[in-house]
Design brief:
alpha/beta
């Protein structure tokens, strides 16, 4: 496979304390506003942030025509290729938004990465709480942080409490956040507050590894 195009943001001064690779969600580009906001905030915390796009999203960027995500096999293989291209998996934290984080969680143990960060994990499709995507999370060994809005339609705090998750997984909740971490105005919270907290939790987790 030829080299995969990467978007790399590096702190201006000094050697990065950590390297984190983030994949996009099912319907968004690697430079979507939410990905940009998270990446720039993490760079401000002395982290090198590396982003990439799966093949179907690269095609959308070229043609403007949307399509369904690649098969699970292709997505997992692509994640492995990205890590192989970067080298030193034991020094990498991988993860991403929604689907990107979920696929990362499916390859993390096999790739031998340092840690895993899932920003809004899709525990089930919206409106289908019995179609769970948690089987592999029971035995996950890679140290993992899941940052989740408390009212995420793809996995609320109440639902997650009933799942059998590995002891390697810690879930950090963002008050009243939805799948994009946005709270309702009536909550008294702001999206900015939840994003700041998401960054803080991610940095704290990386420093604990």
């Amino acid at each position: 496979m030829k080299d995969i195009p990467l978007l790399i943001d590096t702190p201006e001064a000094g050697k990065p304390l950590f390297r984190i690779v983030l994949a996009h969600g099912a319907g968004s580009l690697m430079d979507s506003p939410s990905m940009e906001e998270m990446a720039h905030a993490l760079v401000g915390e002395s982290m090198q942030v590396i982003r990439f796009e799966f093949p179907y999203m690269q095609e959308f960027r070229k043609t403007g025509r949307r399509s369904a995500p690649d098969s699970g096999k292709v997505l997992q293989s692509y994640w492995a290729s990205v890590v192989d291209q970067l080298g030193s998996p034991s020094e990498l934290v991988i993860g991403g938004r929604s689907m990107g984080g979920r696929i990362a969680s499916m390859v993390a143990d096999r790739l031998g990465v340092k840690g895993l960060v899932c920003l809004g994990y899709p525990f089930h499709p919206a409106g289908r709480p019995t179609s769970l995507r948690v089987a592999h999370l029971k035995d996950l060994k890679t140290p993992t942080l899941i940052v989740q809005g408390t009212r995420d339609a793809l996995g609320t705090r109440e639902e997650i409490a009933g799942y059998a998750l590995s002891s390697a997984i810690r879930v950090a909740y963002l008050e009243d956040g939805d799948h994009s971490f946005k709270p309702r105005k009536s909550s008294g919270r702001t999206h900015e507050q939840n994003m700041i907290e998401a960054v803080r939790e991610t940095v704290r987790f990386c420093r604990s590894l």
